[in-house]
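Entry: Transcription elongation factor GreB
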Amino acid sequence: MEQRPNYITPAGYAALKAEYDHLLGTERPAIVEVVSWAAGNGDRSENGDYLYGRKRMREIDRRLGFLARRMKAAKVVDPARAEDRGRVFFGATVTIADVDDNQRTVTIVGDDETDATSGRIGWHAPLARALKGAAVGDLRTVDLPAGPREYEVLAIAYPAG
């Protein structure tokens, strides 16, 4: 199975790497120590520290595997180096308005960096897919669960490079 590239900003990649390093270098060794101590206390079937520690270790190992796969598939794209700053591509901050003139500003980032409350939407989100390649003044229709909605691109910005 071929995995599609995981486009990500340099800051997003650094956040994934920091989480991986923290789990591997700090949390996992601490849990291993607790589990070793709890195992030495005797009956493991009713030992809460042992059972919780083993469960937490499985969670950490699962998350480490996920992070390793995401980082391996990552293709770091620096939006500050965008060549065509007049169109919407990965890393663009876009101001849009709907037909009711409600304005909204979104930044298109990697799927691992999304945060809807701060306006960071994933590259594969319906709105981001609709905006790809758009220029200022373009109208784009987005298929939403409530039905299609049309947006006009008002401004496009990229980080300074």
